[in-house]
Amino acid sequence: MLIKVGTFAVTALMALSGLATLTVGSGLALFTGQTSNTNNTFTSADCFPGNTGLLNPSANGADTGGSGNGFETNPTFAYADAGGVAGNINGASDRHRYYNYSLPIGGGCAIKGIEVRLDWYLDDDRETNSMSVELSWDGGTSWTAPKTDTVESVMTEHTTVLGSSTDTWGRSWTVNELSNASFRVRLTSNCSGIPGQCSKRDYYLDWVPVTIYYGPP
């Protein structure tokens, strides 16, 4: 069915294999993923599937653990890709929080998955080194089980993504739990082996963005 509206041509393809799609002009989708419509009518949805893309933090703070100072050198450099790195010097067991990701998700959406990206490297790969990530939904009172990147790159940055589009880190999330007041990302710099070697380990972090995947409840 072709509907003319002013100078715009709107093509409505309805009840095709149980789906209904409305497109405008050259194919910009306005409605997608609709359920079967017996009478060729459109149904509404509280939320369509999507993701936030990579979002940057805008606040940070050292956490307890290790020497208690986290990424003490230029921690704000991890807010964006490139442009310098945050440094955790002699930092085995140190922890640091990043937050205020300002996640733009509608209240009618369900959270389908969470990814945390780490761009980081080490000064030395002696002993066994890694970096772990935990997530909080209540401002840092409670935390998920950690996910850990065990890749050891020396003075050369590498990228890892922890979580996935279908991984909710062991719990069900509400949109409110992803607000700036509630959502936190905590990094832990790990080293196991000879204490004298681990105490000298330096960790460098270039970027720690988050991507949230969402969809209908």
Please give the structural blueprint.
Layout: E1 2-5, E2 8-16, E3 19-24, E4 28-31, E5 50-51, E6 59-62, E7 86-88, E8 95-99, E9 110-122, E10 128-136, E11 147-149, E12 158-164, E13 184-192, H1 195-198, E14 203-207, E15 210-215
Instruction: Sketch the topology as an H/E string, one letter per element.
Output: EEEEEEEEEEEEEHEE
Q: Please give the domain count.
A: 2
Number of distinct helices:
1
Per CATH, the superfamily of the largest domain is Galactose-binding domain-like
Shape: elongated
From the alpha carbons, calculate the radius of gyration and give it in angstroms. 22 Å
Mean pLDDT: 86
Largest sheet: 6 strands, antiparallel
Question: In the CATH scheme, what's the topology name of the largest domain?
Answer: Jelly Rolls
Which residue ranges are poorly predicted, with pLDDT under 50 across at least 5 consecutive positions? 1-34
Instruction: Tell me what portion of residues adopts beta-strand conformation.
Output: 35-45%
The secondary structure category is: mainly beta
